[in-house]
Amino acid sequence: MPFAFWQKVPPPGVNASYLVVAGGGGATGGTVNINWGAGGAGGTVRTGTASFTIGTTYTVMVGGGGAASTSTAGNGGTSSISSIDSATGGTGTTSSSFVGGYNADYIGGNAGGGAGAGQNGSGYTPGNGFQSSITGTATYYGGGGAGANGSATSGGLGGGGSSNGTPFNGSNGTNGLGGGAAGSGVPYSASGGSGVVIISSTSTAASTTGSPSVTTSGSNTIYTFTGSGSITY
Questions:
Q1: Residue 31 pLDDT more than 50?
Q2: What number is the average pLDDT over the span 207-215?
Q3: pLDDT at 5 over 50
Q4: Residue 177 and residue 189: Cα distance in Å, rounded?
Q5: How many CB atoms lie within 10 A of CB 123?
Q6: Widest CA span of the chain, in angstroms?
Q7: Confidence of residue 228 (pLDDT cuts 50, 70, 90)
Q8: 88-107 burial by CB neighbour count: b if 16+ within 10 A, else e?
Q9: Among residues 19, 72, 6, 53, which one has the least CA distance to residue 220?
């Protein structure tokens, strides 16, 4: 059947890959030599592909890290590209953050879970995050924070905070990676790292807000948002 001039033509789209990482969880403090602080879980990761309509502005939100606390630490904030978010919306694959820690009955807070599948925190050792090469370089995102146990313990791959032992103060999760914070002893506690949103395609955006960094890998142009903004192709 011939095409009629009144039939609508779908607007063209730009196919792009995305990585959406929530902020990492904050950590708790504890009571030195009685119960020590638990590490925060790494930020949830969502990755996939989407078609971005040319001329449409897509809002990008980057979640902040969870607040520190001596009791119940804060969750990391959700990151999103319009309807695609790190927690519930959109198509694609979600790599959830696995179990974070809690204050043990005696010495040693559990470590935070990472965003990589099967990477629950185990004892003081945190889970590693989710590895992606969307930027052209293999990078981990959403590492869990170490649990405090009075000795130095590294954070999970992907920006998880480390517990450096005496004086029991764990480090914050890494901003831009969604790392979970490391557990601490009273009065210390650490905050989770902020998340990130990365969009990669063979097309160049017509405009952006929020000052994303712009890099290239092969034929792809990559926009990395470490703060909220927007993108229009």
A1: yes
A2: 98
A3: yes
A4: 19
A5: 14
A6: 80
A7: very high
A8: eebeeebbbbbbbbbbbeeb
A9: 19
Tokens of 215: 């890099």
CA-CA distance, 56 to 178, in Å (whole number)? 28
pLDDT mean over 44-53: 90
pLDDT of 120 reads 47
What are 226's two structure tokens? 């470490």
Structure-token match 């914070």, residue found: 181
Cα–Cα distances (Å) from 84 to 80, 91, 163, 203, in that order, read 5, 7, 34, 20
CA-wise closest residue to 117 among 131, 134, 106, 137:
131
Report the chain's terminal Cα–Cα distance, integer Å: 32
- Between CA 84 and CA 31 the distance in angstroms is 40
DSSP string, the chain: -PPPTTSPPPPPEEEEEEEEEPPPPP-B--BTTTB-PPPPPPPPEEEEEEEEETT-EEEEE-PPPPPPBSSSPPPPPP-EETTEESSS-SSSEEE---------SSS-PPPPP-SSTT---BTTBPPP-EEE-TTSS-EEE-PPPPPPSSSEEPPPTTT---EE-TTT-BPPPPTTTTPPPPP--TT---PPPP-EEEEEESSPPSEEES--EEEEETTEEEEEESS-EEEE-
Q: Which residue has the tokens 């470590």?
A: 111
Q: Output the pTM of the full model.
A: 0.85
Does residue 143 carry a pLDDT above 80? Answer: yes
Say if residues 75 and 28 touch (Cβ distance below 8 Å): no
